[in-house]
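Sorry to interrupt, but I need a hand with the structure work. Go ahead and set the record down below:
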Amino acid sequence: MFRSSFAVAALVAICSASFPASLSAQAVPPRAVRRDIPITNAIRMAMAAGTRDSTGRPGARYWQLRTDYAIDVALDPATARLTGKARITLHNSSPDALANIGLRLDPNHFLGNAPHSAPWVPAEVTDGMVISRMTVGGKAVNIASNAAVVGIAAEGARAIQNAQQAAAAASAGENTLLNGRSTNARLFLSTPIAPGAKAVLEIDWSHKLPGGPGTGHRMTQRWADTLFQPTQWYPRVAVYDDLRGWDSELYLGPSEFYNNFGTFDVNIDVPAGWIVSGTGLLQNPTDVLTAKARAQLEKVTGTNDVTTIVGPDEIGPGQATATSSNGRLVWRFHADTVNDFAWATAKKYVWQSTRATIPGEGVVPIHMLYLPGRANLFAKAGEVTRHALEFYSKLWFPYQFPQLTLQDGPSAGMEYPMVINSNVGAADHETGHMWWPMVVSNNETWYGWMDEGFNQYMNILSDADAAGKPPVLDGAGQSYGRTSGNEAEPPMMWNANYAGPQYYGFTTYSKTPLMLSALGGIVGDSAVQRAHREWATAWMFKHPSPWDYMFFMNKALGRDLGWFWNAWLFTTESVDHRLASVKPQGIRTTVVVAQDGQMPAPIVLDVKFADKGPAIRPMKNAVMLDATTARVTYPVDVWFGGNRTFTAELVFGGRVIEAITLDPQRRFPDRVPADNAWKRNAP
C-alpha cells in the first residue's frame, strides 16, 4: 500500500505521542485470570438433557447407539479388490426419531477428487467404495449419488453435481443416499427409526485396496499382490451422540476415528494357503488351520516362550493352512463389544505366539504375524507387548479383550480392537490404544489428545518400568514454553481434523504429557494417575467428552482446576515466570517472583542453605527435602487478583541461604528458564 511522505510523517508523530519510547518502561497491566471451564453449546445442551453433568461421570440419562455387523467379504489378490456384503443392525437407543443415518465410506478417501490433509498422500487413486445395492428394512435405497463419475475436471464435477441434485429431488417416500462418493455420506429415510427401535441396513459393495508408496498411516494397505492389510474397509454407521447428533466429519487422513460399539461377525474369503488374522476370535479353526497349527496354539497360554504356529517354510495349502477343494478358505471371526474391525492376510506369513498374564483376569495370547524376511522386527515384539498389556492393566484397568495380534504390513503404527499393525517399534504405544479409544472411546477426530496424548503420557511410565527405573516427568511441562506463542499452534480443543500439518502431531500427541506433567507438579503424579484411572473406569465402553474428563478430574483431585484446564486446553499461553529479585536481610529473605505470561501456576521455590550455621526454623508452607534444602510452595491463588508479581518472605532464621530455584522440577511452561535461579554472591 502506498502512503505519501506527509501521511507517514503524521503517523510517526501520532505513534510517538501515544506510546513510550521503551516498552520496558511501560507498566504491564494486570492480567485477567479465567478460572472456569468454557462451556460450549453442545455440552450445555447435553447437561440440560441430563446425559452429562458436572460430576464428569455419565449422566443419569446418558445413552449411545449400538451397531452390530455381519459381514461377508472376499479378496481377489490379482485385482487387489474386496467384494463384500454387510448386514448392519442399528439399535436406536437415543430419545430421537432418526430421519437419516450417517455413513462412513472411508475408501472414498482414495478417489482422485477427495479432500486430504497435508502431508497425508494416498498411495493410489482408486474408484473408491462402489455400492451396488443398499436396503433399509428390506426397502431399496436410491444410490445414484454413489455412481462412478465418467469424465474429468469440469465434466466430472458436473456429473457429481447432477447426481447429487437428482438424489436430493427424489420422492420423500424413497430412501435416498446423498454424498455417496464422499467419506461422509447420509442416508435419508422414508420412515424414521423410532426411539428404542432398530433398523437393518444391507449394503453390497466393493473397492480396491490401495498399494504403492503413500505418505502417512493407512494411505497404503498392501504390498503388491501377496500381503493385504485392510483398514476402514467396510461401510460403517457413524456415531450419533448427545453432543452433536450425527458425526459429520470427513476422513481427511491424519485424524482418526469415532465409532459405535457392537458385535462383529466377519467371514473372510481368501485363497487357501493364505493366513488371516484380525479383530475377534477365530470361530472355525478346524476348517482353516492344519492339525499341527491347532496343536501349537494349544500350547500358547501355558508359557511365556514364543511358540511357532506356522513356520517360515510352511507355505501354501496343507502346510500354512488347511486344504480346500475350490482353492479358497473362509475364515470366520467373532468379536463382542468392539468399535471397529481390522484384519490382514498374506501368502507367506510366519505366525508366532506368546502370552500375557492380566492381573485379575488370567492369560491372553499374543499373536505375531509377519513376513519371513522381517523376523528381526518381531524378535522382541512379544516381550514388549506382554509388558505393555500387563503394565497398563495394573496402571488403569485390566485388558478387556481375549487376545491381541500384531500384524505386519505397510502400516507399521496403527491400532484397532485386538489388533495392532505394528512391529516392535510401536508395540508399546499401539498396545496402549487398547485402553483408549478401544474401551474408553473418545472422539479422536475432534480431540485426538484424549487418546494419542494420554497414550504418549503412559508410554513414558511404561518405558521407565520396563527399564526398571522411575519415570522422569520433570522438565516436560516447562518445555512447552518454547512452543507457546507460535501463531501456527491451535489450542488442544480445536478440532484436530483442521489442526494443520505443522502442529497436528504436537497438539494431538506431544502436548498432553506436558500438561499432565504440569498437573503432577500441582497435585503429584500419583494423584494424577489415580484420578485418571477412576475416570477411565467410569467411562469404559462409553464416549467421554473433554468436559467429562475435566469435571471428573476436578472432583477426583478435590480441586477447582478450571484455571488449569482453560489455560492448557483452550489457549496456547505459557507461565513465563522469573525471579525478579532476591534480597537477604538478616533472618529474612525477600523474593519477588514475576509471571510475564497469561497462564497462572503455583510458586514453588527450592531454598538451599549453607552446610553450617544456626538451626533452620520451620515455615508452615515449607518442607525439608534434606538437611539443607527446603521446598516452599505458594498456591496458584496468589495470582487470581491479577497481580503479575508476588513477594515471598522467607523466614528460616539465621542460616545463610546459598541458592534459590524457582520451579525446581521444571513443571510449568517457561520461555527463559535461565532466570529461575539465584546464587549468593553470583554476578
Notes: The longest helix spans residues 504-523. Residues 473 and 610 are 29 Å apart (CA to CA). The longest strand covers residues 66-76. The mean pLDDT is 93.
